[in-house]
């Protein structure tokens, strides 16, 4: 198998590269500003805003499968248009495409969302993601689109930012935020009314690679089994990492003017019937041993 990881220098991309190379696959990965730290892959600079650049990379790599794990946040030209250009290019070359989307495509109005639910975003990022996944399904009908939630790893130590937890090979943005809040080096709070279904980066990467080698098409949900508020998640991270959870500031998102859904719970049960990887809940993968 020859696979290309778009966004290979990011948090999720780094794990995808690590697993693909460990499996003995011929692996290529892209980066925007600097190559990732994962070894065993060939690295290619890629600007998703340039259609010609996308074609050049695909021609150079000639992959059998592409996983688009990049995230440009609310930058429409990257997150929406770039993903659409990638889908068009992959379809022209007959590449298997797995496109990573987000629970940000939902408003939270119904709380529980399965794979049949249509997007109704309320933020610019959610709108860009919704546009991308809709276009991917139209332009590349054989592609797999995988929505996920907050991505968690094995710990973080600083407060630098990332996009939806998927950018930054030095760890999950959510874990880094907890460390920074506990250390008092970052202003902010963890909301008690902002609920998601966190997933471990290892589980997510494993499931995405399963989809890459399958011929399954359509929508898939790859989120953890537990629904937690951001504060509940922060407490679990703090306890695992030996931090004082009592130092984590608490607030309510509904008391702020911040846009975005409050309670979005991806139902992954239908997808779980088709992938061998078990999508653990945060209560399990953050358990203190």
What does this structure look like?
- This protein is an alpha/beta fold.
- The protein folds into 2 domains: 172 residues, NAD(P)-binding Rossmann-like Domain (Rossmann fold, 3-Layer(aba) Sandwich); 105 residues, UDP-galactose 4-epimerase, domain 1.
- Helices cover 34% and strands 18% of the residues.
- The protein contains 9 helices and 15 strands.
- The strands form 5 sheets. It has a 7-stranded parallel β-sheet with strand order 3-2-1-4-5-7-12, sandwiched between helices.
- The chain is globular.
- The relative contact order is 0.15.
- About 4% of the residues have low confidence.
Count of the domains: 2
Using the CA coordinates, give the radius of gyration. Answer: 18 Å
- Which CATH class of the largest domain applies here? Alpha Beta
CATH architecture of the largest domain: 3-Layer(aba) Sandwich
Class per helix and strand makeup:
alpha/beta
What is the oligomer described by this structure?
single chain
CATH topology of the largest domain: Rossmann fold
Q: Helices, strands, pairings?
A:
Layout: E1 2-6, H1 11-22, E2 26-31, E3 42-45, H2 51-61, E4 65-68, H3 76-93, E5 96-102, E6 112-113, H4 124-139, E7 144-148, E8 151-152, H5 173-183, E9 190-191, E10 195-196, E11 199-200, H6 201-212, E12 218-222, E13 228-229, H7 230-240, E14 250-251, E15 265-266, H8 269-272, H9 282-285
Parallel strand pairs: 1-2, 1-4, 2-3, 4-5, 5-7, 6-15, 7-12, 8-11, 9-14
Antiparallel strand pairs: 10-13
Helix pairs in contact: 1-6, 2-3, 3-4, 5-7
